[in-house]
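Friendly challenge for the regulars: who can give me the structure tokens for this chain first? No prize, just bragging rights.
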Amino acid sequence: MRRVVVTGIGMITPIGNDPTAVWRALMDGHSGTSRLTRVPADDLPSRIAGEVRGFEPEQYLPTKEVRRTDRFVQFAVAAAREALVAARLDLTPGLAERTAVLIGSALGGVETFEAGVETLRTRGAGKVSPFLIPMFLADMAGGVTAIQIGATGPNFATLSACASGANAIGEAARMIRDGRADIALAGGSEAPLTRTVVAGFAALQALSRRNDEPETASRPFDRTRDGFVIAEGAAILVLEAEDFARERGAPILAEVVGYGTTADAHHIVQPCADGRGAVAAMRQALDDARLSTKDIDYINAHGTSTPLNDAAETAALKQFFGGRQAVPPVSSTKALTGHLLGAAGALEAAISVLALMHQIIPPTWHLSEPDPDCDLDYVPNAPRKERLRYVMSNAFGFGGHNAVLIFGQYPSSESPSSRQSWSSHSSTNVGSS
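First reply, four minutes later:
Bragging rights claimed.
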């Protein structure tokens, strides 16, 4: 099997629209969650969201295509284009047929779907747009991206709720390992900030209702956490076979060394209290990487800020690593980004790569009141310099889906030129927790 490396990252997020801005926000504790403004929210139980700012889809798509694509598709195309630029990759016809595009989404084009339903209700069937169906299909993030960049290799969407983006990266890596592709653009995209979606998650008691404190409402592992903050955005990684990337002189940022995916087979929205499904996925990923638990230096947790998830993930980590003292440092970056649903696993995979590049653990911000059920080292409120060789990234989803990725430091990712290309901020604002 061939080794798989990461050569480019593209991000459209509530805390920044490129890796440099995202990393700076993670180091400074700049929150991307605020009052929900994309839709009328005064009557909603939760009025907080992580909204993408400063995004101009016309920078990435022709104006006509902007009118014919949902916001989640626009995010995906933008992140994919940025990732290709970062990878210094131009898809010539010969490369295009060996390039896969796998982009996951939990909900697809819900903004478009809701608008279509309203048009049908108020104006009748004759006024429904002929673009309604192709605009909201969840596979259109990958479909439109492939059309825009000319990639003619394998193309499909992974749908596993909040594990979708991580599953896309894992399956793409397997595809390259097996020789079915040389290159893959893989990740997730989501634009879920509609009244129906927010009301639905609120009805599940899944969302934070800390409406008077939107910037600090997401509090993973904190005793006062009361739910996640829903967010939008996308993250795409360029994956390549190592030999192919080296031959073309690509900037190699990290290596994808392990992937595991399982099902809880337990409940449609509640994780197993003992975390057995998550444990099984972590075991698969570790076995795939041919590593031991002692090799993992940092875990980017799913860490949603819901009472059930954070306690269950903590229990799973203690079980898997063999007790509280054996668990390496853990953090949840959802404290700042909010929860991007189907794009969350991809964004956190990208952040895991950045952590390896900078040799810094991004902290869990807003963690001030310890929870007896969450008693690990969550790197609270300050970045930590650490020797990082292997980083684990967890993503779990409704339906009992579990996806775990392990990234390894690649020798060239330590070079000054690679670090300089991503951020000059990696050595500032770093403290010990």
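The radius of gyration is 20 Å. The longest helix spans residues 71-86. Your move, everyone else.
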